[in-house]
Design goal:
Layout lengths: L4 H24 L5 H13 L12 H10 L1 H10 L15 H16 L2
Helix pairs in contact: 2-5, 3-5, 4-5
Length: 112
Amino acid sequence: MTFSLTTLSKLPVALAVIGFALGLSSFANAARSGEALYNSYCIACHMNGVAGAPKFGNKADWQPRIDKGIDTLLKDATSGFKAMPPKGLCSNCSQDELRDAIQYMIDKSSDS
């Protein structure tokens, strides 16, 4: 295979495009914060306690759940619990992201 000067001059452009695509891929797969997930998904039910969801920031609502432990809360959030659909309809949320969202809500309920 022979390379001409024209072919070699296009190499930096091709590498830049590949690098940009890989960067976007990494960004798309980057973990979202618990707060970001809460504001995107959880808020729909947890802001006002829809269908019995513990209200955001309400210690009395959250304490019985906190007493069960984060692992139980994560299991219930993952598979769905009572009126809550699996993963709270965040089908592309990882276990770590769900745990962070739960922890965010727990932390904010401890402030009240």
